Amino acid sequence: MRQLLLLLPERPDEHGMDCAWWCIEDGTLGQSGKGDDWRAALIDDPQVIGILPAGAARVEILPAGEVDTPQKQTAARLAVTSRSIGGVERLHSAIGLLPDGRGAVALADKDRMEDWLGWARRQDLDLRHIIPAALLLPVDGEWHRGGLGGEEVFGRDGLAFAADPAMQAALVGDQPVSPMDEAAIEHALLREAGAPTVDLRSGPYAYRRPWRLDPSRLREFAVLAALIALLALLIPLVHALRWEAAADRMDARTEQLASDALGRPVTADEAEHALAAGGGSAIRESDMLAALLGALENEGLVRASAIGWQGDGQLTATLVGPDAPAINRLLAALQRDGWAVTADGQPSNDGRARVVVTMGATR
Fold first, then answer.
1. Which residues pair with 2 in a beta bridge?
2. In angstroms, rounded to a whole number, what is the distance separating the alpha carbons of residues 194 and 197?
3. Which of 38, 156, 264, 307 is least enclosed, having the fewest CB within 10 Å?
4. Do 108 and 202 fall within a single domain?
């Protein structure tokens, strides 16, 4: 795995792209430097980790007994945040465990967290972790100093600051300070990159993996899109075939009734004229079916689950719709066209409206 560690700028709003950086390849420290040439490492799409500068985040160390359960860890983190200057309203906090079981609560100003993340976005960076520089130094009750990104850092038990004579005099005084060589700093960088002790990329600032289309699944998406398009074409085709089959059955029934009445075979197209010429009543079955199918097509939301012919000049159909108003609109349209329509509501177990309609001619 490739990783890129960046020492985030102290004041990101006033800072360009220059910062100290380290590249890690499969757990081995590689190139490093200071400036803007870290951008060349982005070609390999590494996991990017931000290091807060010394003094930008304070770390408080807690006894192991206070953080030995998740519930205690949450309570301890909130307690440390509440008693710190700024409190929960101004400070973002995160907690982790040291190798010896002690707890480490890191605190950083929320506004500065926004500034660092905003700087990263402006550089097209997606920070996977944010770790405090203070935890790169040993947490053993002693003062230590080491070079980080070309700057000397002093620290003891989570308190860290960049070398400054006044700060050294006030905080360190005459106490002994153990130097850390470059190898020790590199070891600490590798340790924190592999498994951060405390990750401030948590809570409201938690890392969220950006959505990316997996090229290997493009074929699956293409097949799925094709199937959806095919279904969109097949559904109206199936309905059309069903209506055509129903119309064919009606025509066959019309031919049978007309042929029986006239005593000779006739087709559905000539049945009405033949009966009228012979003094019989005109059969309006085809007209009624056409009117019903037209009304169904116009309404769209209503379907006919069954269509039948009673033989007394009336057509029956079972209509199913999403609600009663949809069916009522269809019935009203048939009545406006001059058809006599009656409806009988039927029980439904799927929440849709269901009625049996009887349709006859009034003209």
1. 25
2. 10
3. 264
4. yes
